[in-house]
Amino acid sequence: MAIARALALRPRLLVADEPTSALDVSVRAQILNLLLDLRSRLGLAMVFVSHDIKTVRRMSDRVVTMYLGRIVEEAAADAVPARARHPYTRALFSAAPGLLSPIDPIPLEGPVPSATRPPSGCPFRTRCWRADDACAAEMPAPHRDGGHLFRCHHPVPKGATDLELIDQAQERS
Ligand code: SF4
Q1: 140-163 pLDDT, tens digit each
Q2: What is the pTM of this model?
Q3: 14-27: string of b/e by CB count within 10 Å (b at 16+)?
Q4: Domains with residue ranges and CATH for the chain
Q5: What's the CA-to-centroid distance between 67 and ligand 1, angstroms?
Q6: Which of 83, 90, 118, 119 could cysteine-pair with 79, CB 3.0–4.6 Å?
């Protein structure tokens, strides 16, 4: 019903903020397919907001990762998670359950800070296994690599696997 009301205004941009969070799994798939169909048939631009990052990837051309209200990475959907450079993006995907794949999360330790009183420097530093003094001193500037943007002083090396990142995180804990 909310989707029909929004479309009655003939928008060019549709913001779908957690559109399936309260729905049964069977209905959820129908709504997601409906949104994809509407986007294609009506030529809509769509911003799809969700904590379900695997669904975000399926629904999107580009994926934006936010932490404590800040954009920390933006990449083509087919570049994540394997080519994601921000530690939080990699940790998020590693912890997202799939139907067939087992969950093997990169361990994150340390407190989740308040969004209204974030720590100095990089807001993810209290939980990040790659954090050092530079991360506490200054918020990383945006770094561009083609169409890929990330904000991190020590980005995940290109080609690093989740298993390697899990080992690194376990060594730091
Ligand atoms: S800037 Fe530092 S703390 Fe922040 S994500 Fe990068 S390595 Fe981790």
Answers
A1: 999 999 999 999 999 999 999 999
A2: 0.91
A3: bebeebbeeeeeee
A4: 1-50 (no CATH), 52-172 (3.40.50.300)
A5: 11
A6: 83
